[in-house]
Amino acid sequence: MRRTSRIIRIRGAAALAAGVLAVSLTACGGGGDDDSGGDDEDKGTGDTGTTVTLPKLDGETLEVAAVWTGAEQANFKKVLAEFEKRTGAKVTFVPAQDPIINFLGSKVAGGAPPDVAMLPQPGAIKQAVDKGWAKPLGADAVKELGENYSRGWQDIGTIDGKQYGVYYKAANKSLIWYNAQVFENAGAAEPKTWDELLTAAQTVYDSGVTPFSVGGADGWTLTDWFENVYLSQAGPEKYDQLARHEIKWTDPSVKEALTTLAGIWGKKDYVATGALGTDFPTSVTQTFTGGDQPKAGMVYEGDFAQVNIGETKAKVGTDAKVFPFPAVGDTAPVVSGGDAAVILDDSEAAQALATFLASPDAAEIHAKLGGFLSPNKNVDPSTYPNEVQRKIAEALVASGDDFRFDMSDQAPQAFGGTPGKGEWKALQDFLKNPGDIAGTQAKLEADAAAAYGN
């Protein structure tokens, strides 16, 4: 039986990109407030003018599992600390490993699942529901979602008519960050089309700097590259069909996208050395360290790259600038991702945490720390720490349901979300050998057919 993933149907893929392009991202200043936001309890939030009501939970304990590490984990812990302050509950963060479904399976089998898990894929939510692990959200959390989220973001966390997921964290995965000094020295201009991107890359290369940093050790970064190229080149309808495996990975449209990618990945000296051994955080930091002679001039990834940029001396908006992923076809791609809070051990405390995470209160604490994007439409934009992040957030909210969700995140975990397997491994092999397009397609199709069961 074919497994069908949830997907948002949209009117036009260009709307969010147009919203981002409508502002001068690169002219915006950096800087920000590192306050944890713990004093936000009495502050009005967004358009609601109130804070979320939470029960007193003195003596209650909760475990929250997520794959987040580094600054991302540290910032989320500040949100959890505010929940503790307001309720009296004690919350423990449990570091999880990818794929998180396997991690949760071992916890369930051992009789000690976390109370709440942050799941990065709609496919993972579906699996958690199918396995009987996930519990539906209660009335308070559903009410909070209805007040603060567009229908599209609610639907992604809905399975068989019941709400299971709170999409607490979103991502705009259609951005390319660049070292401003490198571009200035080279005389490179921000591109709006793929051909212009290749021109900028050659200009940077001619100046003596490798154009691209790629975090190939983390296979998900490679799926994101593919999805942006594919969405723009093949179009939304084909994207939806491939996401549901209604067309095969041997389709000519996939060949065309891989051929386009090979124009960068297969170009001698266009990708910083050791890409397959470079994890995502390093791919970002090595682009913004080394003065005007970094290991690369550009790095592709979402708005969350700001967390890693923040670990360098570069300032977002001045030293580190950004442009939307260029149009490969008729329109620029708009790919979004996100992490949803899902309850595994139903309790008053777990439901209260889900309700809190669905509120503007929680999101605003995290937003001011940087590297975070919320789909919550009632988050006050002024809480974002710099103009770049603010405009990206405003464009996401303004787009409503007008986006495509990350394709690999919609796939069964075995194909789209497991290190060393499926799409991650096939694209890592392709990065190593960009000339093997037919072999890559055959491997992708074989793995997809096995994972989808068709």
TrEMBL record:
The keyword Amino-acid biosynthesis does not apply. Residues 32-53 are annotated as: Disordered. PROSITE patterns: PROKAR_LIPOPROTEIN. InterPro entries: Bact_solute-bd_prot1, SBP. Residues 1-29 form the signal peptide. Pfam families: SBP_bac_1. The keyword Cell inner membrane does not apply. Residues 32-42 have a biased composition (Acidic residues). Keywords: Signal, Transport. It comes from the Bacteria. Belongs to the bacterial solute-binding protein 1 family. PANTHER family: ARABINOSE-BINDING PROTEIN-RELATED, OSMOPROTECTIVE COMPOUNDS-BINDING PROTEIN GGTB. This is ABC transporter substrate-binding protein. It comes from Streptomyces edwardsiae.
